[in-house]
Amino acid sequence: MVMEETVEEEARASELESLVGLYPHGKLLSSYLGLRFFLLLALLSSFSSISQLSTLHLKLLQAEQELYHLKSRRKKDSKANVEIAHLRAKVVELEWSEAELKAKVEELTREVGEREEMLGEDITLAR
């Protein structure tokens, strides 16, 4: 297999040599072919640049999409923070109401105790 490829390459090389020999301007032809090959490589590198640009464009689109999602999430977080602030205010209000209710219960308990004492004294005096 390798030997066949080598034979084919040698045949192509001799064919090129015979073509260059047929033409009096063989060096000019080979220079022309070299220049064409160089231009082809240059074009391929520009296609590579286009490929890089399209890759960068794709990355830019992905970054913009991620930024959009981050902004959306930030808005949701902001709304949640406002809601949390309202809930905290409500908790403080309820804690204040609870403290007031406890104070009222203590006051009423004290009053009931005083009245029971008074009733107890009245009952002892009535006997």
Kindly estimate the percentage of residues that lie in beta strands according to DSSP. under 5%
The strand count comes to 0
- Secondary-structure element order, as H and E? HH
Number of H- or I-type helical stretches: 2
- Give the total of domains: 1
User: Rg, please?
Assistant: 48 Å
Largest sheet: none
Distance between the termini: 133 Å
- Low-confidence segments: none
Could you report the average pLDDT, rounded to the nearest whole number?
Answer: 81
What class, by secondary structure content?
mainly alpha
Provide the helix percentage.
Answer: over 70%
Quick one: overall form?
Answer: rod-shaped
Describe this structure in words.
Keywords: Coiled coil. It is rod-shaped and about 150 Å long. It has one domain. It is mainly α and 127 residues long. The chain contains two helices and no strands.
Label this structure with key terms.
127 residues; mainly alpha
Quick recap of the structure?
This protein is mostly helical and 127 residues long.
Itemize the secondary structure elements and their pairings:
Layout: H1 2-22, H2 26-126
Helix pairs in contact: 1-2
